[in-house]
Structures are given as structure tokens and as C-alpha cells.
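Why run this: before we spend reagent on co-expression, it is cheaper to look at a predicted model of the complex and decide which construct boundaries make sense. The entries below are exactly what would go into the expression plan.
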Amino acid sequence: MRIGDIAAGRAGDKGDTLDLTIVAYDDDGYQALSRTLTSERVAHVLEPVAPSSVQRYDIPGLRALKFVAPRALPGGVHASLRAGLHWQKAAIWLLLDLDIDA
Amino acid sequence: MSVRERFTIGAGAGFAGDRIEPAVRMAESGEVHAIALECLAERTLVNALRVREANADAGFDPRLARRLRPILPHAARGVAIVTNLGAANPAAAGRAIAHLARDLDLSKLRIAAIVGDDVMHLVDEVEWTESVADGQWIGAHAYLGLEPMVQALAEGADVVVTGRVADSSLVAAAPVQALGLTDGALASALTIGHLLECSGQISGGNLTEPGVADLDAQSYSRLGYPVAEIGADGSATIRLLADDPGRLNVVSCTLQLLYEVHDPQRYITPDAILDFTGVRFEEVATNRVAVSGARSSERPERLKVIGFLARRGIIADIEIGYAGTGALARARLAADILRLRLMRELGLSDFLVDLVGVDSVLGDRSLPLHAEPPELRVHVSARCQDGEMAQAVEDEIYSLTISGPAGGGSVRSERRGHVESITGFLPRERCAARIEWTQTS
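The model came back. C-alpha cells follow.
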């Protein structure tokens, strides 16, 4: 099951820190996400492009999971070698395109 | 001033280059008591500081006149404007607004400039979170809170113009002042401030939902920006103006509530530490969401400071395009040639070569390529010690047009200096704000 089919998401940044928010559409989706989308799994997904430890915060009342990666954007978004500025806005697709059954 | 029961605040802009007309529509609607214009990103200040260095009367947002001209007449008729268009020079911004008001024949307009966020003179006192030993200071600014804005509004300001203040406080200032909000109601207003500070990002922008068609181009091109009705008890509803297109629902609000938040139980603002974990959204009508459950704990003793350090080095960011049969193979060949030459001829090691349209945004985690793109661009970014090396890298890309694979062209090149934003903290009492008034006669 692709996460983007059961949830919406958004990426943000502050300094070196990348933050990813995932909001499930229903309780079943939230349960599935909170079971499978561990902070270790998200750190593994980030590894090739934005390596960092990942801290997960659970907000069950809003069916939301928050992933905070404090060293994913070394030097901030302006120090990145990616084409143009603010690639991190697209980083949410790293999670939305993830298959959580796999 | 009479005591209001409910106050309506509109978010007319969420970043420096934001659209102009949403605030105009708000002003003309007659539905809002005040408009907040958030126009100052962390880095927007860097350019403003450089402009101020050359001209002491400049350094506010260069779009100030364009943004305020259509709405200033409404400020004269009672729609307060609260904005951080002052950037690096709020006092000069106040004078520029007065000048604009005189041009528009607006008399008795009271403009309050909030001064005091510039803490460059205190850089040695700031508790920085990382080393500031290597580099040259461009500036340092404290995130001020509600107090000076609320005071200015209480003293009759029609326009409040600031430099660096917390975005949530900028949006919350007018309702907090008008309704006299404290405690739980204050937590609610600051939460509304946070929800509104990115304008269209809560009302359909940067949003895709499973199983729901994205807004169409017509709707996106006229996207409505949010307004919030706040009650004296802190109850709040976020909505669009009548007839404005957009998508404002529980999901759009949840995404914005948690946007750029780290610990959702402790979102630190200068005026309170907010706890978002109990916040609830209820869609009470189409594009109308009730917000409840915001809580707060203590007001922090220290204010956050953002410092800008110019460090050595330049990033050269360059692209070259390929099209037609075999474009992918020629682009890959060009990328390999660049890797060889940047290492061997220029001695560079800190660079990235990839393909725009294939893997330049998400790198190794991009989705696999299923079909050959009809055209694409080779991108290279390299960290260079100076402008001479950046030029050498650019020359390498251009040399591909005659000494590389066939048909390379459409070259694009830019350079970025290395300015680092560093976070620090100062005791609140070291950041005394004051108000500079300007009034048109």
C-alpha cells in the first residue's frame, strides 16, 4: 500500500533540520502507518539523499505522524548542492511514494 | 475603543514574494478588521541588510509600495495592517509608508515602526548553538513577540511595520489587542497565527490528497487566502472569503499546524510555548474549519536570535540541455565527462552531477525511469573556494557545447554565496523594542 494513497503529507525545514508530516485519512490508515513507519525506517529512506537520525512524534488526535531529521540539510537549504533552491519541499514524496506492505 | 466580541484577521501574504491581490480582496471585502502581511523569511533579511549597508534609508522590503498602495486607503478607514515589510529597516519603512500615504492623500494615518529586533551589537552576548568563529557577520536579529505590536495598536496605529518578529505573533497581534486575550485564549490566537502565517498553504496550496482531484488552474490562479474569526473566549474559525476558490479542510489545517514544527507539544514562540497535541479541527461548512484545543505553557525567558554569517566559498549551479533522439545517452555521457574533468583538471571533490528530469531533486531515491525523456538537462553544482573557480566550472559546461556530445545547449548558470543562518538565544530583557511613530497631517 502506497502511503500517498492513504495519507497526505508536507515537508518543511528550519536551518539544518528537515521535518516531514504525514496525516492519515482514517483510523485504520493511522494505525497502519504508526505500526510500520518507524523512525528507523524513515532514517533508512533518507539515508542516500539526506542522512540524519530521525525523531518521530505521534499526534493520534490528528491522525498525524511527525518525523524530524536534525542533520538532513547540512548548512541549511542554501548550502545544498542540488539544482536550484529548496529541493527539500519535494522530500515528502520520499514518504508518500513508499509502500508500507513491503 | 469599544470592546469587541469577535475579531476577524486576514492573512494577506505569507512570504516576501507572495501574491499581491489576496490582501486587496480582503481589504475590499469589508469582512476583516485587520490584515497581517508576513513578508520576511529567514534569508530575506540578508539582502535587506546588504541594501541598508549601502543606504541608511533603505533595507525594507523593496515591494513595500507595490504591496501597500492598494490597501493603504482601507487602513485609513479602519482596517489595521500589521506587517514585517520593515525587514532590516522598519523605521525607514515607516517613513516610506507615510510618504506613500501622502501620495494617496490619506491624512491622519498613524504608522508605528517597531524597532529593536536588530541585535547585531549583542552578537558576543548571544548564546549561539554552533560555532561562529569562522566567518563574517552580516547581521543578527531577535524574534520579537506581541508586546510592541499590541502596544502600538492600543495607541492607535493604523499600520504597524516591523522587522523580525515571530510570524505567529505578527498575525495574532491585532486580535490579541482588540479582544484583550490572555491565557488559553492567547494560546488559541497564537495557534491561529501559526496556522495563517503561510497564507495559501492552509487553503489549498501545496496540498494533494488521496482520491481527491487537485484544484484546477483557474482556482489555483485565484487561490483564496485564509481569514480567521476569533472570539474573546479564544474560539476560532478559519475560512475563505465568500466566492474565493480553495480547499480549507481538516487535512489542510492539520498539515499547516504541524508545518515546520518539531516537538508538537512544545512549539516555542516568544509569547508562549504552545502545545498542539490537543488541537482539534472540525469542518463546519465548506472551506470553513473550527479550531479548538490549543494549550500553552510558560512564556520563554529567552528570545530566539537568527544570525547570518558570510563564510568562504561559492556554489556554482549550472545546467546544460540535450534533446532529440539519444538525448538520455548524450546527457549521461556529458555527466561522465564533467565528473572526469572537474576532478582531474580542476581538482574538485565536493560537487554533484545529475540529470534534471531524472534524479536532480530526490537523487538516488527518485522513482525509476520507465521511458526515455524527450529532453533533459545535465546539472552540476560545485562548492568552489572563490569566484575564479566558479568561473572555471561554468567554463567546463560551456566547453561541452563544442568539445562534448552533440547538441548540448540551453545553458543556465547561477552562483550562490555561502551565508549560514545560525540560531542563538538572548535573555528577553536584552531585546528592548521601541515604537517610532510617523503620522500624516
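The first strand of chain B starts at residue 6 and ends at 13. The radius of gyration of chain B is 24 Å. Bring this page to Monday's planning discussion.
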